[in-house]
Amino acid sequence: MTPSSPPDHRQALSLSPTPARTGGGIAVMLGLAALLLRTAPGQEPLPQAVMIAVAVATLWVAFALWRGRHDCLRWTAQGLIDGQGRVIAPRDAIQGVDRSPLSLRPSNGFNLALRRAQPRAWQPGLYWCLGRRVGIGGLAPPSESKAMADRIALDTAPPPE
């Protein structure tokens, strides 16, 4: 038996939602939509319209979760890239990684602070990008999210003097 070689830190690191977490998220969204649609008929016209609108929005989120169930994020030489090849956060634009419990971040995830604003993007359960902030996580396993956050922080840290 030969000893295993050390890990190649240049290869791409990937993060994707797990089927169980995605299925749970879709089930919660469908349950909420069903509850709203079931109780809407007994309401006054304005609350009824609001409940139906929220139910439709919830169904849209459930569909977006289902559509993105095979999506992933990859950390490459270019930066953070989604499954369609869009660059979410260029490597040279990343200013820092924030995993503090008091930050506005996805569940079990982390935030990236960017030096320049990026186009808005959102894949429910995987990432969101608003201006100079990118939130990563949600339906991804916490251990993989932590590993990616550590790797990004290590790769983007300024060199020691």
TrEMBL record:
Keywords: Membrane, Transmembrane, Transmembrane helix
Top-rank taxon: Bacteria
Transmembrane segments: 20-37, 49-66
Protein name, UniProt field: PH domain-containing protein
Organism (species): Loktanella atrilutea
Lineage: Bacteria, Pseudomonadati, Pseudomonadota, Alphaproteobacteria, Rhodobacterales
